[in-house]
Amino acid sequence: MNAATVSLRRDGKVLRVEGALLRGEVPRLWRALPAATDGARRIDLGGLDRIDSAGLAMLSLIAATHPQMTIVGQPEGLAELRAAYRLNESLGFSP
């Protein structure tokens, strides 16, 4: 793969996730998360084209470890994945 399919970009206190958040990119992104999330208050998923279950897992771990952050944006497929894994809009478990 020549280019990354997803990027993390800070815009002030907003962490923008753009591209396709797929399993193959999660290890690379995981290493970048401490710096990317430091001081962020919102995760904007509006720039995501696609997301798979590994991407959802990564986002839900971010949400669990950074409860001060809000998540905005509804990329295609996210609602179905959230429903399948019983996650609410904040990506927390919803019994």
Q: What order do the helices and strands come in, and which of them pair?
A:
Elements: E1 6-11, E2 14-21, H1 26-37, E3 42-51, H2 53-65, E4 70-72, H3 78-84
Parallel strand pairs: 2-3, 3-4
Antiparallel strand pairs: 1-2
Summarize the structure.
This protein is an alpha/beta fold. The protein has a single domain, classed as Transcription Regulator spoIIAA, CATH 3.30.750. The chain contains three helices and four strands.
List keywords for this structure.
95 residues, alpha/beta, Transcription Regulator spoIIAA, 4-stranded mixed sheet, 3 helices, 4 strands
What can you see in these coordinates?
This protein is an alpha/beta fold. It has a single domain, classed as 2-Layer Sandwich (Transcription Regulator spoIIAA), CATH 3.30.750.24. Helices cover 34% and strands 28% of the residues. The chain contains three helices and four strands, in the order E-E-H-E-H-E-H. Strands 1-2-3-4 form a four-stranded mixed sheet, covered by helices on one side. A hairpin with a 2-residue loop joins strand 1 and strand 2 (14-21).
